[in-house]
Amino acid sequence: MAKYRRILLKLSGESLAAESKQGISVERLQQYAQQIKDASQGGVEIGIVIGGGNIFRGLQGAGKGFDRVKGDQMGMCATVINSLALSSALDALGQPNRVLTAVRMEPIGEFYSKRKAVEALRRGEVVIMSGGTGCPYFTTDTGSALRGIEIEADVMLKGTRVDGVFTADPERDPEATMFTDITYQEVLARSLRVMDVTATALCMQNNLPIHVFNMDVYGNLARVLRGEPIGTLVHL
Predict the structure, then answer these.
(1) What whole-number distance in Å separates Cα of residue 212 and Cα of residue 187?
(2) Contact in structure between 211 and 157 (CB atoms under 8 Å)
(3) What gap in Å lies between CA 27 and CA 14, rounded to an integer?
(4) b/e map 192-207, b = 16+ CB within 10 Å
(5) Prediction pTM value
(6) CA angle, 201 as apex, 222 and 52 as ends, to 5°?
(7) CA proximity to 45, closest of 157, 125, 110
């Protein structure tokens, strides 16, 4: 029995690249698709937002001389590429799905609206929402928070490369310890890198819990949905 009825699953573009750090790992993509299909077949309604950092990150581009607006638009396109890749992997497994885009991009994807997304979720389709918010200066974290609130998700599941929220970056600090439970206020006060400040504040204002877990461990999505004590829950 799943703990949640409807979720917003935020996936990292970097995780999609696996060990290569860039591009898309076919093996990782297939692992994600299988876990998502299993969850959907178990009755969970799934909305997904994927980052684009494995292809291009607008903020990093701005630091190298790119115009910030154009850089962010390139990042939006990167999320569409990742979304199409996941859609194709789900198609191969026979899992109904659709790609919605925050900017008009027919026939690549349908233009996003809450109505389209919710109707598709109720039909049992996995809905992949790409293009971030459609506006520059906003990250896919903020896009995830926005879409999660719009589709009235019970929780945002943030799949990352680490096991949860730590006191410091565990990939750099071996002394970092993991929280099992933490408030939005403490995340903001400690400047912890869960999501960006805008996304965290948006979730806090709308009481959308964030469950951070390691999506790269096969089977972890099912464990979170069953309510097993893995990862970190961020809440009021």
Answers:
(1) 12
(2) yes
(3) 14
(4) bebbeeebbbbbbeee
(5) 0.94
(6) 55
(7) 125
In this structure, of 129-138, 165-174, 213-222, the range with the lowest mean pLDDT score is: 165-174
Residue with tokens 């154009």: 70
SS3 for the chain is CCCCCEEEEEECHHHHHHHHCCCCCHHHHHHHHHHHHHHHHCCCEEEEEECCCCCCCHHHHHCCCCCHHHHHHHHHHHHHHHHHHHHHHHHHCCCCEEEEECCCECCCEEECCHHHHHHHHHCCCEEEEECCCCCCCCCHHHHHHHHHHHCCCCEEEEEECCCCEECCCCCCCCCCCEECEEEHHHHHHHCCCCCCHHHHHHHHHCCCCEEEEECCCCCHHHHHHCCCCCCEEEEC
3-state SS, 146-170, equals HHHHHCCCCEEEEEECCCCEECCCC
CA dist 148 and 87 (Å) reads: 19
Task: Convert the pLDDT of each residue in 106-138 to its tens digit.
Answer: 999 999 999 999 999 999 999 999 999 999 999
The answer, yes or no, to whether residue 59 has pLDDT greater than 80, is no
Handedness of CA 27, 29, 35, 40 (dihedral sign): negative
pLDDT at 234 over 90: yes
Question: Which two three-digit tokens encode residue 211?
Answer: 């469950």
The pairing of beta strand 126-130 with beta strand 155-160: unpaired
